[in-house]
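Milestone 3.1: sequence recovery, worked example.
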């Protein structure tokens, strides 16, 4: 049996190709370190415990206490029954392991239960493949429905028939075509030979690629079914005597396995909690697939019938989670994982690893009073086999060690291996054996490992979704000499304890050795003060894999090679500089705060390689450097987005534009990784006063705008900041043109809201198709007016400022007051910030005289007669890519330079912009002077302060959005708060503010310290309290939590989860019901108007500047961040109560789960605040303060949904985000509220509402977890 099965049967060469056999991949244990910012404020060692400053004690304890006989006994017990996920025997094993781990003394052991979609075979009607006589219909042959029992161990009634999980039930008949390993190149080659797969059943041998990808490829080529078999050339090399006399697969052996994707496909990208909303699975295979043994494969020669009777069912699965709480850093986790479910008995995969894991819980790292520095989490996953739903399966004939690893963990793996005695007496240590017995035939100078972790086991979600550095390990056979895809009995019913003990690891010496290695590696990660990560390994890997890419034709197709060269070079320099700094810093280990900061950066380096949007066609795969190929989920590519795109180009697909995008993403990601290692990480190695500011028009993209940016840069530099630079981006901008008018009937649509359009078309039967609509400014964002016009098929839009909104009582207008004159025209963008661009409806703003305005009703009532309106709007505007310039100034923090307090405003304007934005820009420059003076006097803030003057805000928040995108990775981890002042003052009546609930009290405290601008009140706080913009005096000044996306805080709040404030001094909004200040965005918004009508003497401006500066100072200098978490739970509870839920239950919306989540969040915030009040003060240790502050910062981030809101992927805040129907104003629970609006408008959106309620429930519960002691 040394040749291919189908060659031996004489199959036509057109269906047979000889291919080399690659080394098989066998996935194993995960040793992971994670950060979720869950910690307890108190970290004092318990009485009798020693401080863990290194891992020497733990290493000795593990080496002396791991017992091979215990491992043997665990394995025998675990593998005596089939452990198929979703069955009682699987649940029984989970409960057994839970009780064993509890007996071993872990701090906490619990079952984490999820209800997931699983796939099962029909035991009463097993799957079968038949050959029938084409004339009589008589069955001439059919495949085995079960494997033949060869030893008493397999004789168990709970063994299920062989099947491929998630194959659909189907009964198909077709010609049989052999497709070798079923790779894309196999199908492509046969297709080039004119083989037609349509309607055929293809037969492929296991190996080379993930079996699910074989089915995907068959679907792609229109096959009707798939048969998979284990070829003896791969699973019984040299025609050896098979099981039960050896480990080689017998002819009746059948490999089971899933052909579905990872995770529960009915809750994609969200957890399958008890309250989960289940959606229709759309990514499951559509054609049937069935595995067979090679005893049956040899008989399948012609037309066959494939009859599959699988069914899918939601059942509970049980993860076993055990914890040992860390003594110093309980909010940092080292996770050890394996799974306990098996296709049948699973003695090798996975239960050899489960036995080792339980033995490590016995050697529990805290014997005799020793507790690890960091929390250790033991994880026994369920339902891995059907797609990592819930790992080590590692010990095979014990020739050498196999490891897949993040580059960061390579050296600690080597150091751990040097401490473990070899189970082979020919070598001293595990390391020596590993070095001398490489898995490949190449010469090596250090042990062979690979960086391709794939998604073949449970490390997949940690590496790809959470960016947690991972290791996968196993003992393996001589892969260079025995070129087989997997160990032969893989996923068959012959994978028994008998096989393991007799053929794989007699004496359990290899099992004990790798258990010790696993434990020592975990101990080093849990106890080393400085994490043993080597960042230069990462840059070397990036550089090597980049050099290996074939870039020969990239430049001729416009791919930017030079930028990627630069990014790789920058990353290499950054890792070298960082490592040198660590190696030469003798005092680092003595400072707990500095250690924490350095370890954070080491941990965050892996996260920096995640792209939140995921890879092309694989949104759940997010690692830009190492991720599974689209064409083989088992094996990672380096630069997967690039490599898969290049492969598609090689296959003849025009994917050059996609390649440009993937190279750009990789370039940006590598540069972000370099930033993550820097002290501040906001510099740009790629870069080569009020009256003064507003004397010229400052339209973005013009020289006058750039001139202002350079002026501000020079002023800030003169003010003494540590660093001031221009962050330049080339963005798409819009400019007016004088050509191409549109012609159409004119229809007045009031404010252009959805309800205005609906009233006209549905109630009054006005046909808007081809019409030009005229809408007055106000009520909603102007871009949403255009969206609605497009939705109703209008040809164009005219926007105007109605005097009833901008000149109440026909007051004397500018230049005699601040009221808008008849010729005043409000400019503005109609495109959302990087989320929506207008389609075909051109838009222009106009000014109307009172006579014109009176011609139209102020509300849509009565019959409207469209007026003929020719020659307008002139909407064919120019779109052009031009540079915009952000001015960034930095004062480096003295104690925590890696924590940023950011304050920002923009400097571009539609015309002169004296109010919006340059009153705020003047304040910002004044603050750079004040903070610069403090710096010169020797007062440096505790945290880094970042001054930001944004460009191109007016055309869609472009400057701030691009900057946040570039620095997103560091902002997610380091951003403390963003304080925005779009304009300092537009009157002098009272203060107004929108804020995250977390910053509400910090804002109040700042306002209490600033003297009032009105002598009737003592402070700005008093004035604000007694002059609320809401019109009703309350116990506290009125703030709103609706930050919207009307200014530059949007990207910080919605993309980076940085708690934000937007503030200004305003007019009496309660008694002056105007849309905004009258001269808004017109050419009359001049310094003359500001100085004369808005803020004579600049008293209000100065007061707002002081509030802004005091709040910045407090956030930058206080040891404990002044965030009040109970504000958040109160806001969530209040807004939830206000939702109209009367008809939710009758439509199946899960209210009880959301009630429970909100109650849990309320309890968690109360308990956390009590902990802080009782245990934390400015006198607490720097490490304690840092841990608490991290949790306070991460609370806001926990409200982000990486997938974004429905139709608005850039809006990610589940609690507060702009409405789909008004981009200016946030909804609370935006996904829920917008869906309810659509339901009220008559749309059937109840399934969407269920999903949004589920997402909100899960998010709130996750937020509560961030405040808990450990949070798992």
């Amino acid at each position: 049996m040394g040749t291919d099965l189908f060659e031996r049967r004489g199959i036509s060469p057109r269906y047979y190709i000889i291919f080399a056999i690659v080394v098989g991949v066998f996935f194993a244990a995960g040793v992971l370190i994670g950060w979720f910012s869950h910690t307890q404020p108190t970290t004092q060692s318990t009485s009798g415990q020693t401080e863990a400053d290194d891992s020497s004690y733990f290493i000795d304890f593990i080496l002396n206490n791991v017992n091979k006989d215990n491992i043997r006994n665990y394995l025998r017990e675990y593998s005596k029954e089939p452990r198929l996920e979703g069955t009682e025997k699987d649940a029984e094993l989970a409960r057994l392991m839970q009780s064993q781990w509890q007996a071993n003394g872990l701090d906490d052991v619990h079952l984490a239960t999820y209800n997931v979609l699983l796939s099962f075979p029909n035991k009463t009607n097993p799957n079968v493949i038949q050959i029938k006589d084409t004339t009589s219909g008589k069955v001439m042959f059919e495949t085995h429905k079960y494997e033949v029992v060869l030893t008493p161990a397999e004789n168990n009634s709970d063994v299920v028939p062989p099947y491929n999980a998630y194959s659909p039930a189907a009964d198909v008949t077709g010609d049989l075509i052999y497709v070798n390993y079923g790779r894309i190149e196999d199908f492509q080659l046969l297709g080039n030979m004119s083989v037609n797969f349509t309607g055929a059943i293809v037969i492929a041998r296991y190996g080379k690629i993930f079996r699910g990808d074989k089915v995907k490829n068959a679907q792609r080529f229109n096959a009707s079914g798939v048969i998979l078999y284990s070829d003896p050339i791969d699973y019984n090399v040299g025609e050896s005597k098979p099981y039960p006399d050896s480990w080689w697969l017998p002819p009746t052996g059948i490999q089971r396995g899933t052909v579905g994707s990872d995770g529960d496909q009915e809750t994609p990208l969200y957890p399958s909690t008890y309250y989960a909303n289940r959606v229709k699975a759309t990514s499951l295979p559509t054609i049937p697939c069935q595995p067979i043994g090679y005893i049956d494969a040899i008989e399948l020669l012609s037309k066959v019938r494939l009859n599959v009777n699988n069914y899918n069912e939601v059942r509970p699965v049980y993860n076993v989670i055990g914890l040992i709480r860390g003594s110093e850093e309980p909010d940092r986790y080292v996770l050890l994982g394996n799974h306990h479910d098996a296709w049948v008995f699973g003695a090798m995969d996975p239960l050899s690893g489960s036995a080792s894991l339980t033995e490590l819980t016995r050697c529990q790292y805290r014997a005799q009073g020793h507790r690890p520095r960091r929390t250790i989490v033991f994880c026994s996953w369920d339902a891995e086999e059907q797609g990592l739903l819930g790992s080590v399966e590692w010990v095979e004939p014990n020739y050498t060690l196999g490891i897949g690893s993040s580059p960061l963990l390579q050296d600690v793996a080597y150091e751990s291996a040097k401490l473990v005695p070899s189970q082979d007496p020919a070598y001293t240590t595990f390391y020596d054996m590993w070095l001398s017995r490489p898995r490949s035939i190449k010469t090596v100078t250090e042990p062979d490992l690979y960086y391709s972790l794939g998604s073949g086991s449970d490390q997949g979600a940690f590496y790809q979704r959470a960016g947690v550095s991972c290791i996968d390990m196993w003992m393996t056979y001589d892969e260079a000499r025995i070129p087989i895809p997997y160990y032969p009995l893989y996923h068959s019913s012959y994978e028994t304890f008998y096989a393991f003990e007799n053929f794989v690891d007699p004496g359990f010496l290899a099992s004990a050795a790798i258990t010790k290695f696993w434990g020592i590696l975990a101990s080093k990660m849990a106890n080393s003060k400085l994490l043993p990560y080597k960042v230069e390994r990462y840059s070397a890997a990036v550089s090597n894999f980049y050099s290996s890419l074939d870039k020969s034709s990239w430049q001729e197709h416009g791919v930017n090679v030079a930028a990627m060269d630069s990014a790789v070079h920058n990353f290499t320099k950054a890792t070298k500089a960082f490592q040198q700094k660590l190696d030469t810093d003798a005092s680092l280990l003595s400072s707990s705060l500095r250690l924490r900061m350095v370890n954070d950066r080491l941990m965050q380096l892996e996260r920096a390689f995640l792209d939140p949007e995921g890879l092309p066609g694989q949104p759940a795969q997010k690692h830009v450097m190492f991720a599974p190929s689209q064409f083989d989920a088992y094996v990672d590519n380096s630069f997967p987005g690039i490599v898969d795109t290049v492969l598609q180009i090689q296959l003849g697909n025009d994917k050059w534009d996609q390649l440009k995008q993937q190279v750009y993403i990789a370039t940006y990601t590598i540069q972000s990784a370099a930033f993550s290692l820097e002290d501040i990480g906001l510099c740009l190695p790629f870069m080569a006063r009020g009256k003064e500011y507003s004397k010229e028009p400052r339209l973005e993209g013009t020289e006058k705008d750039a001139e202002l940016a350079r002026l501000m840069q020079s002023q800030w530099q003169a003010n003494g900041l540590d660093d001031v630079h221009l962050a330049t981006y080339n963005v798409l901008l819009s400019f007016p043109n004088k050509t191409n008018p549109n012609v159409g009937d004119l229809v007045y649509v009031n404010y252009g809201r959805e309800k205005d359009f609906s009233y006209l078309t549905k109630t009054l039967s006005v046909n808007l198709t081809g019409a030009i609509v005229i809408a007055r400014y106000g009520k909603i964002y102007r871009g949403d007016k255009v969206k609605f016009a497009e939705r109703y098929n209008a040809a164009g839009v005219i926007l105007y400022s109605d005097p009833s909104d901008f000149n109440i009582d026909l007051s004397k207008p500018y230049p005699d007051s601040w009221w808008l004159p008849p010729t005043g025209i409000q400019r503005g963008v109609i495109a959302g910030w990087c989320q929506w661009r207008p389609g075909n409806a051109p838009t222009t703003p106009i000014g109307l005289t009172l006579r014109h305005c009176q011609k139209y009703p102020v509300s849509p009532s009565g019959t409207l007669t469209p007026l003929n309106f020719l020659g307008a709007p002139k909407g064919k505007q120019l779109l052009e890519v031009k540079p915009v310039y952000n001015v960034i100034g930095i004062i480096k923090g003295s104690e925590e330079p890696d924590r940023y307090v950011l304050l920002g405003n923009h400097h571009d304007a539609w015309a002169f912009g004296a109010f919006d934005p340059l009153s705020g820009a003047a304040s910002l420059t004044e603050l750079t002077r004040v903070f610069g003076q403090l710096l010169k006097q020797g007062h440096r803030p505790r945290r880094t302060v970042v001054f930001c003057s944004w460009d191109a805000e007016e055309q869609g928040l472009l400057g701030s959005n691009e900057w946040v995108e570039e620095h997103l990775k560091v902002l997610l981890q380091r951003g403390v708060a963003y304080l925005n002042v779009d304009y300092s003052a537009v009157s002098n009546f009272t203060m107004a503010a929108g804020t995250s609930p977390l910053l509400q009290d910090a804002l109040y405290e700042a306002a209490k310290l600033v003297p009032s601008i009105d002598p009737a009140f003592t402070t700005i706080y008093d004035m604000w309290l007694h002059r609320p913009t809401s019109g009703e005096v309350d116990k506290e000044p009125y703030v709103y939590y609706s930050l919207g996306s009307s200014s530059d805080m949007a990207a910080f709040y919605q993309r980076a989860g940085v708690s934000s404030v937007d503030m200004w001094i305003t007019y009496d909004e309660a008694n002056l019901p105007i849309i905004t200040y009258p001269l808004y965005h017109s050419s009359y918004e001049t310094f003359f108007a500001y100085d004369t009508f808005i803020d004579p003497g600049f008293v209000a401006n100065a007061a707002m500047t002081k509030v802004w500066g005091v709040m910045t100072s407090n956030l930058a200098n206080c040891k404990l961040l002044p965030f009040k978490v109970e504000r958040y739970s109160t806001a969530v509870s209040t807004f939830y109560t206000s939702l109209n839920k009367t008809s939710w239950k009758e439509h199946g919306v899960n209210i009880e789960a959301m009630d429970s989540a909100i109650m849990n969040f309320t309890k968690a915030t109360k308990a956390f605040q009590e902990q802080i009040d009782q245990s934390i003060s400015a006198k607490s240790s720097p490490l304690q303060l840092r841990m608490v502050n991290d949790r306070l910062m991460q609370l806001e981030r926990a409200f982000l949904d990486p997938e974004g809101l429905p139709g608005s992927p850039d809006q990610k805040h589940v609690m507060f985000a702009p409405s789909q129907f008004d981009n200016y104003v946030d909804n609370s629970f935006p996904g829920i509220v917008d869906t309810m609006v659509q339901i009220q408008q008559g749309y059937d959106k109840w399934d969407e509402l269920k999903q949004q309620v589920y997402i909100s429930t899960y998010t709130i519960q996750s937020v509560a977890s961030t405040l808990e002691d450990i949070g798992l």
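Residues 1126-1271 form a domain with the Transcription Elongation Factor S-II; Chain A fold (CATH 1.20.930.40). The mean pLDDT is 84.
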